[in-house]
């Protein structure tokens, strides 16, 4: 056996032996030098990846399976390597041995040069690829099992298969944008761009340029180069127009032309561009009423209304609540190590009784706040009640002016947890108002600074920290941050 090993060792470009924990127990001098280690003894006892960054010896000891032929990306040039498990008489893996067989790779040069060429092509292709504007969500992200949700998904899937415009109607936070992504992703245009533009998010005077683009030198101060509009970027794909009810009248006429004639012109250009774009529009406003009041063109409304889909509010599909909560909490848990979050049945019951004016967006915020407010990963009725009380969409929150500080001022009909959260919020706001810094407020309240920041985020209390007497930074992990 030893003779076989020696023969292999002599013929190879380098040898390494690891124990069952993938720690180096022996390495040939030549091999150690290749990885920048002058004295092989310096490598002993170290994890194999510390010395050989791309080593797969750990895989061999953990699976007990050999890797008979592989290319190792080593410094200067790749090596052809062979890795074998070492077993004791009982058949247990006690370590592994690796031989670097070729370094000139002469006999394998066609294979290796193909490998290297492919690797270079892949890197170049990755670099050259423009950032893709693909749909971020699919139908499986639209969680829910209620009859209303199942029917909604059926209708949306049918819509995905057609080329007609789609109009998504529903209260804020019901998932219209998510659904637009899913429709695009299930449509024949799925491999083309998905581009969104919200009428409410862009100032009116910039919307036209955003949508249709600007020709070079169109007006003083315009770029010397063309600036592509969203319609152009979405060519071949889908353009999602959010809050379409807020679209200015002048733009409505131009959008109608896109839908009817399938063409448009960039600002300051006479060139007519063909628009091969599917429009999905959404609004949380009552479009038919906007038509009646004259602020939305009737002809555009009828063009968009070919396939209209009403997304029901959460309160009308409350059977979905448990599943949505689970999904949201799983998403939050992924972002941080530790135990998974648990929603107690009584907490779910509290959430089921709420009317959710902000729908699933509000539900996400409430769950996030409940996590911030509780010291354990278990969400109880009290923690969700407290989070609900702080919810901007909640009745309790709207009734919160001014902040009560005396127990006598706290509304009694709201239950202990809600009353306590009113009280706590007031206490924190007063301490902050009367302290020179958050740290001082925390001290005054007798709680840690991190705890105070957590509670400020949960109650959405902003605070400018004085730095050298000037306004400084916002608290870390503020309420506008993503999931904690
Ligand atoms: N059925 C669902 N399952 C899981 N998450 C959902 C569902 N519906 C909505 N969401 C989540 O709720 C949030 C709000 O959804 P979205 O932005 O799609 O709503 P919207 O109706 O477009 O709101 P707005 O009218 O205010 O623009 C997002 O984080 C989305 O991922």
From TrEMBL:
It comes from the Bacteria. It holds the Pfam family HTH_8. Transmembrane segments: none annotated. Residues 142-372 form the Sigma-54 factor interaction domain. SUPFAM superfamilies: Homeodomain-like, P-loop containing nucleoside triphosphate hydrolases, PYP-like sensor domain (PAS domain). Keywords: ATP-binding, DNA-binding, Nucleotide-binding, Transcription, Transcription regulation. InterPro entries: AAA+_ATPase, AAA_lid_NorR, Homeodomain-like_sf, HTH_Fis, P-loop_NTPase, PAS-like_dom_sf, PAS_4, Sigma_54_int. Signal peptide: none annotated. This is Sigma 54-interacting transcriptional regulator. It comes from Caldimonas mangrovi. The lineage of its organism: Bacteria, Pseudomonadati, Pseudomonadota, Betaproteobacteria, Burkholderiales.
